[in-house]
Amino acid sequence: MSSTDFEFLINLIGPKVAKENTNFRESISVSVRLAITLRFLSSGESYHSLMYTFKVSKQSISEIVPEVCEALISGLKNYIKMPTETNEWLKISADYEEKWNFPHCLGALDGKHILLQAPINSGSEFFNYKGHFSIVLMALVDADYSFIYINAGCQGRISDGGVFKNTDLWKHLENKSLNLPEPISLPGRDNPVPYVIVADDAFSLSENVMKPYPGHQTKGSKERIFNYRLSRARRVSENVFGIMSSIFRVLRKPILLSPEKATSVTLACAYLHNFLRASKSSKNCYTPQGSVDIDDGSGEITPGTWRRQSENSSCLPLQRIGRKSGENAKAIRYEFATYFTSETGSVPWQDKYA
What is the pLDDT of residues 265-304, one digit of tens each? Predict the structure, then answer.
């Protein structure tokens, strides 16, 4: 983070976290409060360790970190906004088609388990399928490695489908209240196809959510090429979670806080991610050249450096469970698969990698 952005954040959260001096002692300044919180997020150090670094008692730090995280979430709330206009969705779709060769794509959907220390008196409420305690971070990501929707705090024991159905995003999709563009046919095709979100096997197939064909597909088949093209577009969400856990290292091990405070920490990391990605002075510091996956235009993808740095990340994937899908959703997926193997929709290098 640049010094300019650090000063910006001080002014942004100052009114919310500043304390008054008294006749007995001076209060901890806003700059120190912010520095303590950013150090905690970026290193994952214990409060006891931070106490010696900043010469502030761990009892004070235990109050400072959640308070500053809430202030950051409130102050940076405009940096993660769901598109409300059709033109905004079309801009995201155009970026996905240009950068990842997947038309009609409105974002990559993914969810991760954020590990926790076992919450007191919680029983198995936060106990997930991997045998850990966790909360779930659900996110929709655009083609520029930024969040456009996040939801955090759902208990880890809830199935992936249940987590998604507890989000506002799912409710808006069901109610058709997102002002999505009207379905149109793919280039060179006749059947109208709706705009979709790409996801992995952890989600159920629907008219607006595309997932890969299950099982092993024959090399060169429509299904295998579709899976390859969808996986290329879905890499964006993997990159975002990878970048977050490699920079905000509090996410690389179980968070030793209550679920409510861990949710605030997770959301603060997400808002700071979008803030730093949008900042001209900090973008190259936060995500320097080579930190994300790069496509050289011939289908060859160079893995981002975060993949080597996040091997011990506590961001676990959601459980993959097969589900029955509606015939209409299957027909939409088949239309995409047919388009990707047509003369208009194919790319010259897809047979090599599919």
Answer: 999 999 999 999 999 998 888 888 877 777 766 667 777 7
* Amino acid found at 219: K
Distance CA 320, CA 340 (A): 25
Question: Residue 89 and residue 188: Cα distance in Å, rounded?
Answer: 22
Between helix 30-43 and helix 259-278 the angle, nearest 10°, is: 100
Strand partners, 135: 114, 155
Select from 251, 167, 223 the least CA-distant residue to 350. 223
Residue 320 has pLDDT above 70, yes or no: no
Tokens of 131: 């045998």
How many Cα neighbours within 13 Å face the side chain of 55?
Answer: 2
Token pair 């929707």: residue: 149
Q: What percent of the chain stands above pLDDT 70?
A: 95
Query: CA-CA distances (angstroms) from residue 143 to 55, 99, 100, 231, 265?
Result: 42, 7, 8, 13, 25
Q: In the beta sheet, which residues pair with residue 315?
A: 114
> What is the 3-class SS of the chain, one letter each residue?
CCHHHHHHHHHHHHHHHCCCCCCCCCCCCHHHHHHHHHHHHHHCCCHHHHHHHHCCCHHHHHHHHHHHHHHHHHHCHHHCCCCCCHHHHHHHHHHHHHHHCCCCEEEEEEEEEEEECCCCCCCCCCECCCCCEEEEEEEEECCCCCEEEEEEEEECCCCHHHHHHCCHHHHHHHHCCCCCCCCEECCCCCCEECCEEECCCCCCCECCEECCCCCCCCCCCHHHHHHHHHHHHHHHHHHHHHHHHHHCHHHHCCECCCHHHHHHHHHHHHHHHHHHHHCCCCHHHHCCCCCCCEECCCCCEECCCHHHHCCCCCEEECCCCCCCCCHHHHHHHHHHHHHHCCCCCCCCCHHHHC
pTM: 0.90
Comparing CA positions, the residue from 168, 125, 112 lying closest to residue 319 is 112
**Cross-strand pairs, 139:** 110, 150
d(CA 243, CA 220): 33
